[in-house]
């Protein structure tokens, strides 16, 4: 390993390459000493993966960097970021567990080894109950939740580059993502990751259904664009009159969520009422209820469609008020109201 260590020392003395710099730019919440550890992990991963390349044709190091950047978006600690960079070295390179432990410590080795062990579990497509058992087994296998987060970040980048694989592998990985990884992300409350995993996997697992739903959604949104603008404008004006300083975001329901609702409740596309909606972001929790009162004065709420996840949060910590309204011409629209802190938890979880 002398040559390896000499080469690593040389690389660490040079100007950081672009992928490393981009990663470090997103780690402002860590201090300079933490950055040194992450630089070291990048260099070791870069040398270890050497001339390996991915099916996309990119140098292999692009993958662990993408994983590390996802972990950085979750504001994870330096050990997690370093392990994200090193997560494939035990399986795909000559680096040993003893070497990783010596150079990075037992904590990072445990994370890297944990991800490698998860990679060795074979999943065969199965029914919902069996998929749930497999998810439970995965979660029970790991003693440190950071192992699962690294694995989720790994799967996220793999699903985003799935186009490079042959159709049979695309289908297998996409189905596995929908049945195992997206539900785990949802259970942990990482809604943003769950949404991307489902969005990317859906088009490979069910390409025809994805295409039909995408066309239907585009047509429906196009037909209702002016109506939606009217709704947003009216709600915005009335909230301002009430002295509420808010941010209003328009949102479309994700295609896979629409598909699931249609399948589980045996609905047609036109019967799914929350295809599009608004998200109102406020500063304080009490303002959420004030916003709810104002929107209910403007548009009639649909009976049984008001849900208070602030008073009674979901098991993954999600908090928000949900209500469904009848807008102009009977157009149904869902409104979610939450604070900035609740919005952050809803997107990044844990």
Report how far apart the termini are.
39 Å
Proportion of residues in helical segments: 55-70%
CATH superfamily of the largest domain: Hypothetical protein af1432
Q: Examine the coordinates and then state which fold CATH places here, giving the name of the CATH topology of the largest domain.
A: Hypothetical protein af1432
Q: Hey, roughly how much beta strand do the residues contain?
A: 5-15%
Classify the secondary structure makeup into a structural class.
alpha+beta
3D architecture notes:
- Helices cover 63% and strands 9% of the residues.
- It contains 16 helices and six strands.
- It has two domains: 2-205, Hypothetical protein af1432; 208-348, Beta Polymerase, domain 2.
- The model has no long low-confidence stretch (mean pLDDT 93).
- Strands 1, 2, 3, 4, 5 and 6 form a six-stranded mixed β-sheet that branches.
- It has helices at residues 2-13, 18-25, 32-49, 62-73, 78-86, 89-92, 97-104, 106-119, 128-141, 145-160, 167-187, 191-205, 207-241, 255-265, 285-298, 340-348; strands spanning 247-252, 276-282, 300-301, 307-308, 321-326, 332-339.
- By secondary structure, the chain is α+β, with helices and mostly antiparallel strands.
Tag the structure with descriptive keywords.
Hypothetical protein af1432; 16 helices; 350 residues; 2 domains; six-stranded mixed sheet; 6 strands; Beta Polymerase, domain 2; 9% strand
